[in-house]
Amino acid sequence: MADKTWEISGEYMESCNCDYLCPCIFTNPQGEATHDNCVALMVYRIDRGRHGDVVLDGLKFALVIRSGRIMSDGGWVFGCVVDAKANDAQRRALADIASGQAGGPPQMIRDNLVSDFRGVEFRDIGFTAEGLKRATEIPGIFAFEIEGVASRNRSGEPFYIDNTAHPANRRLALARSRKTEVQGFGLNLSLAGKGNNGHFAPFAWGA
Question: Is residue 135 situated within a structural domain?
């Protein structure tokens, strides 16, 4: 098997505007979103990563998606954010990965589902994880706060959904959002106290 050009792994978190639990997750994603469209915000923290000789450890990137009522129908708006802390070589590498130019899951998204790619921006990306709580802020783009839905069966553990077709991981923690806001890529959304959908999980990509 040929060596991979790039490999990244770490932690991911997400919020979308669908009511909890987002129908896309358990319908592959054939079910209708709970509103006229689905706006999904994903942040990825790279704990270990490389693109060729470029080390990507400790950097972050984010994906912004807006689909129609049924995600699998395509026609998505798609934008990417790359960590402003990256140097020039890291910016080029992460922009290629996040935008789908370098293969892997983002390329699958671009090739099959996106009709309106709105480019790559370079911003500071926050990523806070404490217990079941996750939060991010990307100034001028989006911010959200989610908390895992705790199970009574195991102290400190959230509910999970397994064997999904999600690009981040087959197994996702279930979460509700305290706040979800979007201002970037021509999108505008503000939700607070709605308990809309969220997820978090480890991720590992490569191509």
Answer: yes
In a domain, 128, yes or no: yes
Taking 90 as the threshold, does the pLDDT of residue 104 lie above it? yes
Flag whether 1 is in a domain: no
- Residue 141 in contact with residue 185, Cβ under 8 Å? yes
Asked if residue 101 is part of any domain, the answer here is yes
CA dihedral 124, 38, 9, 152 (to 10 degrees): 110
Predicted model pTM = 0.96
d(CA 182, CA 134): 17
Residues of the chain above pLDDT 90, percent? 91
Q: How many domains does the chain have?
A: 1
Q: What is the mean pLDDT of residues 76-81?
A: 98
Are 156 and 140 within 8 A, CB to CB?
Answer: no
CA-to-CA dists, residue 128 to 6, 87, 132, 172, angstroms: 25, 22, 11, 18
Structural domain range at position 188: 6-206
Element at 98 (helix H, strand E)? helix 88-99
Token reading at 161: 């959904």
- Angstrom distance (rounded) from CA 203 to CA 207: 14
**Measuring CA to CA, which residue among 113, 87, 90 is closest to residue 100?**
113
The candidate with the shortest Cα–Cα distance to 56, out of 98, 107, 110, 111, is 98
CA-CA distance, 47 to 57, in Å (whole number)?
5
The region of weakest confidence among 43-47, 149-153, 163-167 is: 149-153
pLDDT over 70 (residue 73): yes
